[in-house]
Amino acid sequence: MTAAKTPLGPPYARGAMAFILAGGRGSRLMELTDRRAKPAVYFGGKSRIIDFTLSNALNSGVRRIGVATQYKAHSLIRHMQRGWNFFRSGSNESFDLLPASQRISEDAWYLGTADAVFQNIDIIEDYAPRHMIILAGDHIYKMDYEQMLAQHVESGADVTVGCLEVPRAEAHAFGVMHIDEHDRIIDFLEKPADPPSMPGRSDVSLASMGIYVFDTQYLFERLREDAADPNSARDFGKDIIPAIVRHGKAVAHHFARSCVRSASEKEPYWRDVGTVDAYFEANIDLTDFVPALDLYDHNWPISTYAEVTPPAKFIHDENDRRGCAVSSLVSGGCIVSGASVRESLLFTGVRVNSYSEVQRAVILPYAEVGRSSRLKNVVLDRGVKIPEKLVVGEDAELDAARFRRTEKGVCLITQSMIDRL
């Protein structure tokens, strides 16, 4: 079958394919990724982390999407099959799940980010996209990729790199772009001790977001060259991008130019929720009166798989036994039964029983808090059953002995930890 020809002019998204790299574990999330890949971790009350990247592609007009998976992919694949199966091949749309399957050789899983794309070149060629958007599936942000595609075409770049402005003092944790006054990248430094600053801004550096736009055929040529190099790490950030910076034309795209913001969002929002503390804080921030990330923006919806559940329910109305939630996000199927919930997120099907007090908690689906418990600054994994009268968040030494307690005092609790009590 001959692939349909892709558009040559704007809107460029209709002629592009998004390739999402979703195979990483995210080991700094500790037990949250024991059973699922980082992109499959729950976020924001009802979504998964990968839903933000997928929704960005969908809202930008991209209708061809491939998702490469590897580490403990079942939860992620099941989520995408349930929630992202609406693409129509008859309308020039496609959604491909691309698990590492030893397609190149019997002992070759995905060896790096570049190799994940290389191993699927034949599948991509069948769709004949004009441009490739390479994306990470594990960040929280809203971005219009059409703006980045337009810059790529207009600048004549070999690669366009999505970049985020960060304080120079913090840039040592990122891959940093050294650019000239025309946004051309003149050097790429991986986690430099002395990060270069932006032109005219001595206190700000430009960090790579792991987002790249290529002309498809140019990308294939670079990937084949890289695959033939025995010294390559098969990685975009370590190999492909630095080589193009040296021998081609690499241009920086500033996130602020394509970040999608509603009227209530004052600053461009991007988070790597790669640690338990960062994950906890990004979720709890959503309970603010005016959160930095607007999930209620109908112009840029975050799509996800939505389970069929009854509405949330709040019961009992006595002085010491009143079901209530304040400054909290409560999902469908939850029951707050004579308990107090504050500054918290209750994912689908959570139950909080009588006389309990929950404050600053991220409670994943189908967890249950037993009677007369007090929980503060906690993350409860899916399905955890908190026993009656358990107290967490008031004795740091005791918490650290029983649970995963972070430097900032957040306790991550799994069922196996509860079973050991």
TrEMBL record:
Catalytic reaction(s) noted: alpha-D-glucose 1-phosphate + ATP + H(+) = ADP-alpha-D-glucose + diphosphate
SUPFAM superfamilies assigned to the protein according to its UniProt record, in alphabetical order: Nucleotide-diphospho-sugar transferases, Trimeric LpxA-like enzymes
Gene name per UniProt: glgC
Species per Swiss-Prot/TrEMBL record: Hansschlegelia plantiphila
Nucleotidyl transferase domain segment(s): 18-287
Pfam families attached to this UniProt entry: Hexapep_GlmU (PF24894), NTP_transferase (PF00483)
Keyword Nucleotide-binding among UniProt keywords: yes
PANTHER family: GLUCOSE-1-PHOSPHATE ADENYLYLTRANSFERASE, GLUCOSE-1-PHOSPHATE ADENYLYLTRANSFERASE-RELATED
Protein's name according to its UniProt entry: Glucose-1-phosphate adenylyltransferase
Site residues (Could play a key role in the communication between the regulatory and the substrate sites), renumbered to this chain: 70, 109
Enzyme Commission designation: 2.7.7.27
